[in-house]
Amino acid sequence: MFSLSADAIDPVKSALLLRNEQSGAVVVFEGCVRNRNQGKFVTSLEYQAYEVLAQKDGEKILSEAREKFNIHQAICLHRFGHLLLGETAVWIGVTASHRDEAYKASRHIIDQIKLRLPIWKKEHYRDETPEWVFCKDHSSHVHFNQSDYYQRQSGLVDQAKLDRSRVLVIGAGGLGCPVLTALAQAGVGRIEIADFDRVSLSNLHRQSFYSPEVVGESKSVIAKNRVAELNPFIQVLSHDSRIDIANVGTFISGRDLILDCTDNLDTKYLIHDACFKHRIPLISASVYRHTGQVRSFDPEGDHGCLRCIQTEAPDDSQIGNCNEAGTLGAVVSAIGAIQANEAIEFLQSHRNSTLVETFFMNFSDLATMKVRNFKNRECACCRGEREIEETEYEVSLNDLIPSEVELVDIRNHPDDYLERLQNQTAKKIVVYCHRGIRSKRLVRDQRELGFSQFYSLRGGACSL
Amino acid sequence: MKSVHIQYFAMLKEQAGKGQETLSVTARTLGELYLHLTEERHLSLPLSMIQVAVNDEFSRLDREINEGDRVVFIPPMAGG
User: Do B78 and A265 touch (CB under 8 A)?
Assistant: First the structure.
Protein backbone atom coordinates (compact mmCIF):
# COMPACT_ATOMS: atom_id res chain seq x y z
CA MET A 1 0.00 0.00 0.00
CA PHE A 2 1.36 3.37 -1.02
CA SER A 3 -0.47 6.52 -0.03
CA LEU A 4 0.16 10.20 -0.67
CA SER A 5 -1.64 12.57 1.63
CA ALA A 6 -1.86 16.19 2.66
CA ASP A 7 -3.03 15.14 6.11
CA ALA A 8 -0.67 14.50 8.99
CA ILE A 9 0.61 10.93 9.31
CA ASP A 10 -0.34 9.30 12.61
CA PRO A 11 2.48 6.85 13.39
CA VAL A 12 0.51 5.05 16.10
CA LYS A 13 -2.51 4.46 13.92
CA SER A 14 -0.35 3.49 10.97
CA ALA A 15 1.51 0.88 13.00
CA LEU A 16 -1.79 -0.95 13.54
CA LEU A 17 -1.75 -1.83 9.85
CA LEU A 18 1.27 -4.01 10.45
CA ARG A 19 0.35 -6.42 13.23
CA ASN A 20 -0.15 -10.00 12.19
CA GLU A 21 0.70 -13.36 13.66
CA GLN A 22 2.99 -14.64 10.93
CA SER A 23 5.44 -11.76 11.14
CA GLY A 24 8.25 -12.05 13.63
CA ALA A 25 9.74 -8.76 12.52
CA VAL A 26 8.07 -5.37 12.21
CA VAL A 27 10.34 -2.57 11.02
CA VAL A 28 9.07 0.99 10.92
CA PHE A 29 11.04 3.88 9.47
CA GLU A 30 9.94 7.49 9.88
CA GLY A 31 11.47 10.39 8.02
CA CYS A 32 10.83 13.59 9.99
CA VAL A 33 11.36 17.28 9.47
CA ARG A 34 14.53 18.30 11.29
CA ASN A 35 15.67 21.72 12.30
CA ARG A 36 18.99 21.95 10.50
CA ASN A 37 20.22 21.18 7.03
CA GLN A 38 23.69 21.97 5.69
CA GLY A 39 24.30 24.60 8.33
CA LYS A 40 20.99 26.38 7.89
CA PHE A 41 18.22 26.61 10.48
CA VAL A 42 15.15 24.99 8.96
CA THR A 43 11.75 26.11 10.21
CA SER A 44 9.42 24.11 7.98
CA LEU A 45 9.22 22.09 4.78
CA GLU A 46 7.00 22.16 1.77
CA TYR A 47 6.52 19.06 -0.35
CA GLN A 48 5.07 19.17 -3.81
CA ALA A 49 4.24 15.95 -5.57
CA TYR A 50 3.41 15.04 -9.13
CA GLU A 51 0.61 13.00 -7.65
CA VAL A 52 -0.42 10.60 -10.41
CA LEU A 53 3.13 9.67 -11.22
CA ALA A 54 4.27 9.58 -7.60
CA GLN A 55 1.41 7.23 -6.75
CA LYS A 56 2.38 4.89 -9.59
CA ASP A 57 6.08 4.99 -8.82
CA GLY A 58 5.44 4.48 -5.12
CA GLU A 59 3.34 1.38 -5.77
CA LYS A 60 6.00 0.09 -8.11
CA ILE A 61 8.75 0.55 -5.54
CA LEU A 62 6.73 -1.39 -2.96
CA SER A 63 5.91 -4.23 -5.31
CA GLU A 64 9.57 -4.47 -6.32
CA ALA A 65 10.51 -4.67 -2.66
CA ARG A 66 8.00 -7.47 -2.10
CA GLU A 67 9.47 -9.28 -5.07
CA LYS A 68 13.07 -8.70 -4.08
CA PHE A 69 12.85 -9.46 -0.37
CA ASN A 70 11.20 -12.22 1.55
CA ILE A 71 8.67 -9.99 3.35
CA HIS A 72 4.97 -10.06 4.18
CA GLN A 73 3.88 -6.42 3.99
CA ALA A 74 5.36 -3.19 2.71
CA ILE A 75 3.48 0.03 3.39
CA CYS A 76 4.55 3.58 2.63
CA LEU A 77 2.77 6.82 3.52
CA HIS A 78 4.16 10.03 2.07
CA ARG A 79 3.14 13.56 2.94
CA PHE A 80 2.83 16.54 0.71
CA GLY A 81 1.93 20.10 1.67
CA HIS A 82 3.45 22.22 4.40
CA LEU A 83 5.10 20.37 7.30
CA LEU A 84 6.36 21.78 10.59
CA LEU A 85 9.43 20.67 12.53
CA GLY A 86 9.08 17.13 13.96
CA GLU A 87 6.26 16.14 11.67
CA THR A 88 6.47 12.81 9.85
CA ALA A 89 7.18 13.31 6.15
CA VAL A 90 7.44 9.67 5.17
CA TRP A 91 6.41 6.54 7.05
CA ILE A 92 7.50 3.06 5.95
CA GLY A 93 6.36 -0.15 7.58
CA VAL A 94 7.62 -3.60 6.66
CA THR A 95 6.77 -6.99 8.14
CA ALA A 96 8.59 -10.26 7.57
CA SER A 97 9.23 -13.57 9.26
CA HIS A 98 12.70 -12.43 10.25
CA ARG A 99 14.34 -9.09 10.91
CA ASP A 100 17.07 -9.32 8.32
CA GLU A 101 14.77 -9.18 5.31
CA ALA A 102 12.54 -6.59 7.01
CA TYR A 103 15.45 -4.23 7.68
CA LYS A 104 16.82 -4.64 4.18
CA ALA A 105 13.45 -4.06 2.53
CA SER A 106 12.79 -0.96 4.63
CA ARG A 107 16.16 0.50 3.69
CA HIS A 108 15.62 -0.36 0.04
CA ILE A 109 12.22 1.35 -0.04
CA ILE A 110 13.38 4.65 1.45
CA ASP A 111 16.43 4.73 -0.83
CA GLN A 112 14.29 4.13 -3.89
CA ILE A 113 11.75 6.73 -2.80
CA LYS A 114 14.47 9.31 -2.38
CA LEU A 115 15.86 8.36 -5.75
CA ARG A 116 12.81 7.93 -7.92
CA LEU A 117 9.68 9.60 -6.60
CA PRO A 118 8.65 12.84 -8.34
CA ILE A 119 8.37 14.77 -5.10
CA TRP A 120 10.04 18.12 -4.57
CA LYS A 121 11.02 19.65 -1.29
CA LYS A 122 11.25 23.33 -0.43
CA GLU A 123 13.03 24.22 2.79
CA HIS A 124 12.03 27.31 4.76
CA TYR A 125 14.80 28.80 6.92
CA ARG A 126 14.90 31.07 9.92
CA ASP A 127 17.05 33.83 8.39
CA GLU A 128 17.24 33.04 4.67
CA THR A 129 15.06 32.74 1.61
CA PRO A 130 13.41 29.35 1.01
CA GLU A 131 15.12 26.91 -1.36
CA TRP A 132 14.04 23.89 -3.42
CA VAL A 133 16.18 20.89 -2.63
CA PHE A 134 16.35 17.77 -4.69
CA CYS A 135 15.79 14.48 -2.99
CA LYS A 136 18.29 12.89 -5.33
CA ASP A 137 21.02 14.98 -3.71
CA HIS A 138 20.42 13.14 -0.49
CA SER A 139 20.50 9.70 -1.92
CA SER A 140 23.33 7.42 -0.93
CA HIS A 141 22.41 5.06 -3.74
CA VAL A 142 25.46 3.84 -5.59
CA HIS A 143 25.24 4.41 -9.30
CA PHE A 144 27.23 2.21 -11.62
CA ASN A 145 26.77 0.72 -15.01
CA GLN A 146 27.29 -2.66 -16.53
CA SER A 147 30.80 -2.00 -17.82
CA ASP A 148 31.93 -0.97 -14.31
CA TYR A 149 30.58 -4.22 -12.94
CA TYR A 150 32.27 -6.46 -15.50
CA GLN A 151 35.47 -4.42 -15.83
CA ARG A 152 37.89 -7.04 -14.49
CA GLN A 153 36.60 -9.86 -16.67
CA SER A 154 36.30 -7.83 -19.85
CA GLY A 155 39.21 -9.51 -21.60
CA LEU A 156 38.24 -12.97 -20.44
CA VAL A 157 34.68 -13.54 -21.55
CA ASP A 158 32.27 -12.67 -24.32
CA GLN A 159 29.91 -10.65 -22.12
CA ALA A 160 27.20 -10.32 -24.75
CA LYS A 161 26.99 -14.09 -25.19
CA LEU A 162 26.70 -14.66 -21.46
CA ASP A 163 24.08 -11.93 -21.25
CA ARG A 164 21.95 -13.71 -23.86
CA SER A 165 22.19 -17.06 -22.06
CA ARG A 166 19.32 -18.70 -20.21
CA VAL A 167 20.21 -21.35 -17.66
CA LEU A 168 18.29 -23.44 -15.16
CA VAL A 169 20.04 -24.49 -11.95
CA ILE A 170 18.32 -27.45 -10.31
CA GLY A 171 19.13 -27.63 -6.60
CA ALA A 172 20.10 -24.59 -4.53
CA GLY A 173 22.15 -26.49 -1.97
CA GLY A 174 25.85 -27.16 -1.46
CA LEU A 175 26.62 -27.11 -5.17
CA GLY A 176 23.84 -24.72 -6.14
CA CYS A 177 25.03 -21.85 -3.92
CA PRO A 178 28.53 -21.54 -5.44
CA VAL A 179 27.23 -22.28 -8.93
CA LEU A 180 24.57 -19.56 -8.72
CA THR A 181 27.01 -17.07 -7.24
CA ALA A 182 29.56 -17.60 -10.01
CA LEU A 183 27.01 -17.56 -12.83
CA ALA A 184 25.36 -14.39 -11.54
CA GLN A 185 28.66 -12.59 -11.09
CA ALA A 186 29.85 -13.67 -14.53
CA GLY A 187 26.70 -12.09 -15.97
CA VAL A 188 24.64 -15.02 -17.23
CA GLY A 189 21.61 -13.03 -18.36
CA ARG A 190 18.76 -15.17 -17.15
CA ILE A 191 19.11 -17.58 -14.25
CA GLU A 192 16.31 -19.80 -13.01
CA ILE A 193 16.53 -21.66 -9.73
CA ALA A 194 14.46 -24.76 -9.01
CA ASP A 195 14.40 -26.24 -5.52
CA PHE A 196 11.47 -27.60 -3.51
CA ASP A 197 13.37 -27.79 -0.25
CA ARG A 198 13.21 -25.66 2.89
CA VAL A 199 16.35 -24.41 4.60
CA SER A 200 17.34 -26.66 7.49
CA LEU A 201 19.94 -26.15 10.21
CA SER A 202 22.06 -28.98 8.85
CA ASN A 203 22.44 -27.09 5.53
CA LEU A 204 24.08 -24.01 6.99
CA HIS A 205 27.66 -25.32 7.32
CA ARG A 206 28.04 -25.66 3.54
CA GLN A 207 25.28 -23.64 1.83
CA SER A 208 26.44 -20.05 1.87
CA PHE A 209 23.13 -18.34 1.02
CA TYR A 210 21.42 -19.43 4.19
CA SER A 211 21.72 -18.16 7.73
CA PRO A 212 19.99 -19.36 10.90
CA GLU A 213 17.26 -16.70 10.54
CA VAL A 214 15.86 -18.30 7.39
CA VAL A 215 15.62 -21.90 8.61
CA GLY A 216 12.29 -23.29 7.42
CA GLU A 217 11.96 -20.92 4.48
CA SER A 218 11.96 -21.74 0.78
CA LYS A 219 15.47 -22.25 -0.57
CA SER A 220 14.58 -21.15 -4.08
CA VAL A 221 13.14 -17.84 -2.85
CA ILE A 222 16.04 -17.02 -0.50
CA ALA A 223 18.56 -18.06 -3.15
CA LYS A 224 16.84 -15.89 -5.75
CA ASN A 225 17.01 -12.86 -3.46
CA ARG A 226 20.70 -13.42 -2.72
CA VAL A 227 21.56 -13.89 -6.38
CA ALA A 228 19.57 -10.85 -7.48
CA GLU A 229 21.43 -8.74 -4.92
CA LEU A 230 24.78 -9.78 -6.35
CA ASN A 231 24.18 -8.51 -9.85
CA PRO A 232 21.53 -5.94 -10.81
CA PHE A 233 22.09 -6.53 -14.52
CA ILE A 234 20.64 -10.03 -14.76
CA GLN A 235 17.21 -11.59 -14.44
CA VAL A 236 16.70 -14.16 -11.69
CA LEU A 237 13.63 -16.37 -11.27
CA SER A 238 12.73 -18.97 -8.66
CA HIS A 239 10.63 -22.11 -8.83
CA ASP A 240 9.65 -23.60 -5.49
CA SER A 241 9.05 -27.03 -7.00
CA ARG A 242 10.35 -30.55 -7.17
CA ILE A 243 11.49 -31.73 -10.58
CA ASP A 244 9.55 -34.82 -11.54
CA ILE A 245 8.67 -36.80 -14.62
CA ALA A 246 5.59 -34.67 -15.29
CA ASN A 247 7.26 -31.25 -15.18
CA VAL A 248 10.86 -31.89 -16.20
CA GLY A 249 10.22 -31.27 -19.91
CA THR A 250 8.65 -27.88 -19.26
CA PHE A 251 11.43 -26.87 -16.91
CA ILE A 252 14.31 -27.61 -19.25
CA SER A 253 12.83 -26.70 -22.64
CA GLY A 254 14.03 -23.45 -24.14
CA ARG A 255 17.02 -23.16 -21.82
CA ASP A 256 20.56 -23.02 -23.19
CA LEU A 257 22.01 -25.10 -20.39
CA ILE A 258 20.87 -27.07 -17.35
CA LEU A 259 23.02 -27.35 -14.24
CA ASP A 260 22.31 -30.40 -12.13
CA CYS A 261 23.18 -29.53 -8.54
CA THR A 262 20.88 -32.14 -6.99
CA ASP A 263 21.86 -34.68 -4.39
CA ASN A 264 20.28 -37.97 -5.41
CA LEU A 265 20.70 -40.38 -8.29
CA ASP A 266 17.01 -40.71 -9.13
CA THR A 267 16.75 -37.01 -9.88
CA LYS A 268 20.14 -36.92 -11.58
CA TYR A 269 19.12 -39.65 -14.02
CA LEU A 270 15.71 -38.09 -14.57
CA ILE A 271 17.35 -34.77 -15.51
CA HIS A 272 20.00 -36.53 -17.60
CA ASP A 273 17.48 -38.58 -19.58
CA ALA A 274 15.17 -35.60 -20.09
CA CYS A 275 18.05 -33.43 -21.33
CA PHE A 276 18.92 -36.05 -23.96
CA LYS A 277 15.29 -36.46 -24.95
CA HIS A 278 14.78 -32.70 -25.31
CA ARG A 279 18.31 -32.12 -26.67
CA ILE A 280 19.37 -29.63 -24.01
CA PRO A 281 23.00 -29.46 -22.80
CA LEU A 282 23.64 -30.43 -19.17
CA ILE A 283 26.43 -30.09 -16.64
CA SER A 284 26.21 -32.40 -13.67
CA ALA A 285 28.28 -32.47 -10.49
CA SER A 286 28.34 -34.68 -7.42
CA VAL A 287 30.33 -35.09 -4.26
CA TYR A 288 30.98 -37.94 -1.90
CA ARG A 289 32.84 -37.05 1.30
CA HIS A 290 36.25 -35.79 0.11
CA THR A 291 35.72 -36.52 -3.57
CA GLY A 292 33.83 -34.77 -6.29
CA GLN A 293 33.17 -35.06 -9.99
CA VAL A 294 31.97 -32.85 -12.84
CA ARG A 295 30.78 -33.91 -16.28
CA SER A 296 29.13 -32.07 -19.16
CA PHE A 297 26.75 -33.55 -21.71
CA ASP A 298 25.83 -32.20 -25.12
CA PRO A 299 23.13 -34.27 -26.85
CA GLU A 300 24.28 -32.87 -30.20
CA GLY A 301 27.91 -33.68 -29.43
CA ASP A 302 29.99 -36.80 -29.71
CA HIS A 303 30.91 -37.71 -26.17
CA GLY A 304 28.14 -40.01 -25.03
CA CYS A 305 25.91 -40.14 -21.99
CA LEU A 306 25.68 -42.03 -18.72
CA ARG A 307 23.64 -44.79 -20.36
CA CYS A 308 26.38 -45.52 -22.92
CA ILE A 309 28.20 -47.65 -20.39
CA GLN A 310 25.44 -48.53 -17.95
CA THR A 311 22.04 -48.92 -19.54
CA GLU A 312 20.31 -49.14 -16.16
CA ALA A 313 20.66 -46.39 -13.61
CA PRO A 314 22.22 -47.42 -10.31
CA ASP A 315 20.11 -47.16 -7.22
CA ASP A 316 21.29 -44.67 -4.66
CA SER A 317 19.92 -46.54 -1.69
CA GLN A 318 23.32 -48.22 -1.51
CA ILE A 319 25.55 -45.20 -1.70
CA GLY A 320 25.86 -42.17 0.42
CA ASN A 321 24.42 -38.75 -0.20
CA CYS A 322 25.21 -35.75 1.98
CA ASN A 323 22.88 -36.89 4.73
CA GLU A 324 24.60 -40.17 5.46
CA ALA A 325 28.09 -39.81 4.06
CA GLY A 326 28.85 -36.32 5.27
CA THR A 327 30.22 -33.46 3.26
CA LEU A 328 32.26 -30.34 3.74
CA GLY A 329 31.57 -26.78 2.57
CA ALA A 330 35.04 -26.36 1.09
CA VAL A 331 34.66 -29.51 -1.02
CA VAL A 332 31.19 -28.81 -2.45
CA SER A 333 32.08 -25.15 -3.00
CA ALA A 334 35.20 -26.07 -4.97
CA ILE A 335 33.33 -28.61 -7.08
CA GLY A 336 30.49 -26.10 -7.59
CA ALA A 337 32.99 -23.48 -8.73
CA ILE A 338 34.42 -25.91 -11.28
CA GLN A 339 30.92 -26.77 -12.47
CA ALA A 340 30.13 -23.06 -12.91
CA ASN A 341 33.39 -22.50 -14.76
CA GLU A 342 32.48 -25.31 -17.17
CA ALA A 343 29.10 -23.65 -17.70
CA ILE A 344 30.65 -20.27 -18.45
CA GLU A 345 33.02 -21.90 -20.96
CA PHE A 346 30.20 -23.85 -22.59
CA LEU A 347 27.82 -20.90 -22.89
CA GLN A 348 30.39 -18.98 -24.90
CA SER A 349 31.82 -21.63 -27.18
CA HIS A 350 29.67 -24.77 -26.90
CA ARG A 351 32.84 -26.49 -25.76
CA ASN A 352 34.50 -27.28 -22.48
CA SER A 353 36.86 -29.89 -21.14
CA THR A 354 34.35 -31.95 -19.16
CA LEU A 355 32.35 -32.72 -22.30
CA VAL A 356 35.36 -34.76 -23.37
CA GLU A 357 36.60 -35.99 -20.01
CA THR A 358 34.90 -36.38 -16.65
CA PHE A 359 36.83 -34.53 -13.97
CA PHE A 360 37.40 -36.13 -10.59
CA MET A 361 39.12 -34.66 -7.61
CA ASN A 362 40.04 -36.11 -4.25
CA PHE A 363 40.36 -33.28 -1.77
CA SER A 364 42.16 -35.31 0.88
CA ASP A 365 45.33 -35.40 -1.22
CA LEU A 366 44.36 -32.95 -4.02
CA ALA A 367 44.72 -35.75 -6.58
CA THR A 368 42.83 -35.14 -9.79
CA MET A 369 41.82 -37.59 -12.47
CA LYS A 370 40.33 -37.10 -15.91
CA VAL A 371 38.53 -39.98 -17.58
CA ARG A 372 37.70 -39.82 -21.26
CA ASN A 373 33.94 -40.10 -21.79
CA PHE A 374 32.72 -43.09 -23.77
CA LYS A 375 30.15 -43.03 -26.54
CA ASN A 376 28.22 -46.12 -27.49
CA ARG A 377 27.00 -45.70 -31.09
CA GLU A 378 23.98 -47.88 -30.34
CA CYS A 379 22.85 -45.91 -27.28
CA ALA A 380 19.12 -45.06 -27.46
CA CYS A 381 19.42 -42.38 -24.79
CA CYS A 382 22.04 -40.45 -26.80
CA ARG A 383 19.74 -40.51 -29.80
CA GLY A 384 16.88 -39.14 -27.71
CA GLU A 385 14.87 -42.32 -28.20
CA ARG A 386 14.83 -43.51 -24.63
CA GLU A 387 11.58 -42.93 -22.79
CA ILE A 388 11.99 -41.12 -19.51
CA GLU A 389 11.02 -43.28 -16.60
CA GLU A 390 10.73 -42.51 -12.98
CA THR A 391 11.40 -44.97 -10.27
CA GLU A 392 8.09 -44.63 -8.54
CA TYR A 393 9.23 -46.24 -5.35
CA GLU A 394 8.88 -43.06 -3.36
CA VAL A 395 6.06 -40.72 -2.40
CA SER A 396 6.16 -37.39 -0.63
CA LEU A 397 4.23 -36.63 2.49
CA ASN A 398 2.40 -33.83 0.68
CA ASP A 399 1.10 -36.20 -1.98
CA LEU A 400 -0.59 -38.54 0.47
CA ILE A 401 -4.30 -38.68 1.23
CA PRO A 402 -4.50 -40.06 4.78
CA SER A 403 -7.58 -42.19 4.21
CA GLU A 404 -5.96 -43.97 1.26
CA VAL A 405 -2.69 -45.02 2.81
CA GLU A 406 -1.35 -47.12 5.62
CA LEU A 407 1.83 -45.63 7.04
CA VAL A 408 4.21 -48.25 8.46
CA ASP A 409 7.40 -47.65 10.43
CA ILE A 410 9.60 -50.60 9.47
CA ARG A 411 12.01 -49.99 12.31
CA ASN A 412 9.54 -51.27 14.85
CA HIS A 413 7.20 -54.05 13.84
CA PRO A 414 6.07 -57.63 14.60
CA ASP A 415 7.66 -60.52 12.71
CA ASP A 416 4.71 -61.26 10.47
CA TYR A 417 4.08 -57.67 9.41
CA LEU A 418 5.32 -58.08 5.84
CA GLU A 419 3.00 -60.96 5.14
CA ARG A 420 0.06 -58.95 6.48
CA LEU A 421 1.00 -55.97 4.31
CA GLN A 422 1.40 -58.13 1.22
CA ASN A 423 -2.18 -59.26 1.67
CA GLN A 424 -3.45 -55.75 2.30
CA THR A 425 -4.28 -54.47 -1.15
CA ALA A 426 -7.06 -51.98 -0.45
CA LYS A 427 -4.69 -49.17 0.49
CA LYS A 428 -1.27 -47.93 -0.54
CA ILE A 429 1.33 -49.13 1.93
CA VAL A 430 3.78 -46.33 2.67
CA VAL A 431 6.78 -47.63 4.62
CA TYR A 432 9.45 -45.53 6.22
CA CYS A 433 12.60 -45.76 8.30
CA HIS A 434 14.87 -43.00 9.60
CA ARG A 435 15.94 -41.53 6.27
CA GLY A 436 13.90 -43.56 3.82
CA ILE A 437 16.85 -45.57 2.57
CA ARG A 438 16.13 -48.99 4.06
CA SER A 439 12.42 -48.52 3.34
CA LYS A 440 13.17 -47.80 -0.32
CA ARG A 441 15.19 -51.01 -0.52
CA LEU A 442 12.26 -52.90 1.00
CA VAL A 443 9.85 -51.39 -1.53
CA ARG A 444 12.11 -52.37 -4.41
CA ASP A 445 12.22 -55.96 -3.13
CA GLN A 446 8.44 -56.08 -2.66
CA ARG A 447 7.81 -54.66 -6.15
CA GLU A 448 10.05 -57.32 -7.62
CA LEU A 449 7.94 -59.91 -5.81
CA GLY A 450 4.89 -58.37 -7.47
CA PHE A 451 3.44 -56.33 -4.60
CA SER A 452 2.70 -53.04 -6.26
CA GLN A 453 0.97 -51.42 -3.28
CA PHE A 454 4.31 -50.64 -1.57
CA TYR A 455 5.78 -47.13 -1.54
CA SER A 456 8.55 -45.59 0.48
CA LEU A 457 8.22 -42.25 2.21
CA ARG A 458 10.71 -39.85 0.62
CA GLY A 459 13.05 -38.53 3.29
CA GLY A 460 11.86 -41.10 5.85
CA ALA A 461 10.88 -40.27 9.42
CA CYS A 462 12.89 -37.06 9.10
CA SER A 463 10.20 -35.71 6.79
CA LEU A 464 7.34 -36.44 9.21
CA MET B 1 47.99 -64.13 -15.65
CA LYS B 2 47.95 -60.45 -16.53
CA SER B 3 49.39 -57.67 -14.50
CA VAL B 4 46.97 -54.76 -13.99
CA HIS B 5 47.20 -51.57 -12.02
CA ILE B 6 44.00 -50.99 -10.07
CA GLN B 7 42.84 -47.73 -8.55
CA TYR B 8 39.91 -47.41 -6.15
CA PHE B 9 37.86 -44.26 -5.91
CA ALA B 10 35.71 -42.65 -3.19
CA MET B 11 33.90 -45.19 -1.02
CA LEU B 12 35.66 -48.11 -2.73
CA LYS B 13 38.95 -46.68 -1.60
CA GLU B 14 37.66 -46.63 1.96
CA GLN B 15 36.46 -50.22 1.70
CA ALA B 16 39.60 -51.56 0.03
CA GLY B 17 41.70 -49.74 2.59
CA LYS B 18 44.03 -48.54 -0.16
CA GLY B 19 43.91 -46.20 -3.12
CA GLN B 20 45.71 -48.44 -5.57
CA GLU B 21 47.56 -51.69 -6.11
CA THR B 22 49.11 -53.77 -8.87
CA LEU B 23 47.81 -57.32 -9.14
CA SER B 24 48.32 -60.37 -11.31
CA VAL B 25 44.86 -61.52 -12.27
CA THR B 26 43.21 -64.37 -14.12
CA ALA B 27 39.91 -62.53 -14.74
CA ARG B 28 39.06 -62.20 -18.42
CA THR B 29 36.87 -59.08 -18.31
CA LEU B 30 36.68 -55.96 -16.16
CA GLY B 31 33.40 -57.18 -14.69
CA GLU B 32 34.98 -60.47 -13.65
CA LEU B 33 37.88 -58.59 -12.12
CA TYR B 34 35.49 -56.45 -10.06
CA LEU B 35 33.59 -59.52 -8.81
CA HIS B 36 36.89 -61.10 -7.81
CA LEU B 37 37.81 -57.93 -5.92
CA THR B 38 34.47 -57.68 -4.12
CA GLU B 39 35.50 -60.86 -2.32
CA GLU B 40 39.21 -60.18 -1.99
CA ARG B 41 38.84 -56.57 -0.93
CA HIS B 42 35.40 -56.71 0.71
CA LEU B 43 33.79 -54.17 -1.63
CA SER B 44 30.10 -53.71 -0.89
CA LEU B 45 28.73 -52.29 -4.13
CA PRO B 46 27.18 -54.61 -6.69
CA LEU B 47 28.61 -54.66 -10.19
CA SER B 48 25.56 -52.86 -11.57
CA MET B 49 26.51 -49.69 -9.68
CA ILE B 50 30.12 -49.40 -10.71
CA GLN B 51 31.68 -47.39 -13.47
CA VAL B 52 35.05 -48.44 -14.71
CA ALA B 53 37.76 -46.56 -16.55
CA VAL B 54 40.62 -48.26 -18.36
CA ASN B 55 43.68 -46.31 -19.42
CA ASP B 56 41.85 -43.03 -18.67
CA GLU B 57 38.70 -43.84 -20.62
CA PHE B 58 35.29 -45.03 -19.42
CA SER B 59 34.65 -48.55 -20.54
CA ARG B 60 31.94 -51.19 -20.53
CA LEU B 61 32.34 -53.91 -17.94
CA ASP B 62 32.48 -56.66 -20.56
CA ARG B 63 35.71 -55.29 -22.02
CA GLU B 64 38.61 -57.74 -21.96
CA ILE B 65 41.61 -57.05 -19.79
CA ASN B 66 45.00 -56.53 -21.42
CA GLU B 67 48.43 -56.78 -19.86
CA GLY B 68 49.40 -53.52 -18.19
CA ASP B 69 45.90 -51.99 -18.15
CA ARG B 70 45.33 -49.19 -15.69
CA VAL B 71 41.88 -49.82 -14.23
CA VAL B 72 39.90 -47.44 -12.04
CA PHE B 73 36.70 -48.49 -10.28
CA ILE B 74 34.38 -45.56 -9.63
CA PRO B 75 31.25 -45.75 -7.49
CA PRO B 76 28.33 -43.43 -8.23
CA MET B 77 28.29 -40.15 -6.32
CA ALA B 78 25.09 -38.40 -5.46
CA GLY B 79 25.85 -35.72 -2.91
CA GLY B 80 25.34 -32.08 -3.62
Answer: yes
